[in-house]
Design brief:
- The structure is a single chain.
- By secondary structure, this protein is mainly beta.
- It has a domain at 1-181: Pectate Lyase C-like.
- The protein is built from two helices and 31 strands.
- The protein has helices at residues 29-38, 191-194, and strands at 7-9, 16-19, 44-47, 51-54, 58-60, 66-76, 84-86, 92-99, 115-117, 123-132, 137-140, 146-148, 151-155, 160-163, 167-172, 175-179, 184-187, 201-207, 210-214, 220-223, 225-236, 243-247, 257-268, 279-285, 291-303, 311-317, 322-334, 342-345, 351-354, 357-358, 361-362.
- The chain is elongated and about 65 Å long.
């Protein structure tokens, strides 16, 4: 049974509406959807603290509104319809917790993601996501987006994924924990994968990202991005590479990456899963005719990479893929094993390395 909640509001533009008396018992899907749809552009909906269960998908589809959760929780109860969608432009969502069932099989479809951004000018601020059968925050085809202090944990797929030609976005002070796939991923799939043309993601800045563990895959990924700038990273305990800049071949077919910058921060405990050797920092292309160009990775400290990795830094161009003008400088390695500083399977003219140290001492690298 759906129990409707009382709304107190002023109808003038810019006014606030309050979802009052706390969360209703039982399923709130219809009540929440009605409240979101009744908003007018420029209005704010203030949720009362509490937990609002929803068995169906929720859509924020009125442009220019603000949803202030005041610490409330929207709790999805059904994996196949667990998403909250932002499909209108210039929406702000803040101070909200989103949860979904934990455990169970991974589900690779957008409506299984927890929060989906498919519009322009969207801001997410102080949003926490716990659990998702797919991606935590899925940003697809969005422009001029901003995420501030977003936390995503215990997803079965990526923590925060940016794809489908999204551009002109900024992510600040955001964290992923124990994600089932990549922590932060900027991805551009090729026509060979999709069956149609899709632009790469462009002009995205990620400031101070934190990755606390992945149960599978990598920490921070750019595969199919242009002009992507990532600063002051903290990546730890990843199943595979801590940082992965690439073009990816069969079966994923992810586009070339160009103009990627990763500057400052730490990568600790990378490549913890045996049998899938990468570097703590990996720059790679195994996609014929595609590659990584004009990438700069600098001022990183790499600590305690698993000895089963193939290097602290891995540079690979295989299967007709290429690297071009890849620069790594001021890379400081701390380790107790004899893992090599650099593992290179790419022509020497395609990359430049300088300023490497091992346990505080300058070292020569290829």
């Amino acid at each position: 049974m759906v129990v409707l909640v009382v709304i107190c509001f002023v109808v003038a533009a810019g006014a606030s509406r309050n979802l009052a008396h706390g969360a209703p018992p039982g399923d709130s899907t219809a009540a929440l959807q009605a409240r979101f749809d009744q908003l007018k552009p420029g209005e704010t909906l203030n949720l009362e603290p509490g937990t609002y269960q929803h068995s169906g998908e929720i859509y924020i589809r009125v442009p220019g509104v603000q949803i202030d959760g005041n610490g409330a929780t929207l709790q999805a109860t059904n994996d196949p319809t667990s998403a909250v969608w932002v499909t209108a432009d210039n929406v702000t969502v803040s101070n909200l917790n989103l949860t979904a069932p934990q455990g169970g099989p991974r589900q690779d479809s957008t409506d299984r993601s927890k929060l989906v951004v498919g519009a322009n000018g969207v801001t997410l601020r102080d949003v926490t996501i716990t659990g998702s059968s797919s991606v935590g925050v899925f940003i697809g085809g969005a422009k001029n987006f901003r995420l501030d202090r977003v936390t995503v944990r215990d997803t079965r797929a990526d923590g925060i994924q940016i794809t489908a030609g999204s551009s002109d976005g900024e992510i600040n002070d955001s964290t992923t924990e124990r994600t089932g796939d990549d922590g932060f991923a900027v991805l551009g799939y090729s026509e060979q994968k999709l069956g149609y043309h899709s632009e790469p993601c462009r002009n995205i800045t990620i400031n101070s990202p934190v990755v606390h563990g992945t149960t599978w895959s990598r920490g921070i990924v750019v595969a199919g991005g242009e002009d992507i700038h990532i600063h002051n990273i903290s990546v730890s305990n990843t199943s595979l590479a801590g940082v992965f800049i690439a073009a990816v071949g069969d079966p994923f077919f992810m586009q070339s990456s160009n103009g990627v910058e990763v500057t400052g921060g730490t990568v600790t405990g990378a490549n913890m899963t045996p049998g899938f050797p990468m570097g703590a920092v990996t720059v790679s292309s195994d996609y014929a005719g595609h590659g990584v160009a004009n990438a700069v990775i600098s001022d990183l400290t790499i600590t305690d990479t698993a000895p089963t990795a193939n290097g602290n830094v891995t540079l690979e161009a295989t299967n007709g893929g290429f690297l071009n003008k890849v620069v790594l400088r001021n890379i400081h390695i701390q380790q107790r094993s004899d893992l090599p500083a650099v593992h290179a399977e790419a022509p020497g003219h395609s990359f430049a390395l300088s300023g490497f140290t091992m346990n505080g001492n300058m070292i020569d690298v290829p």
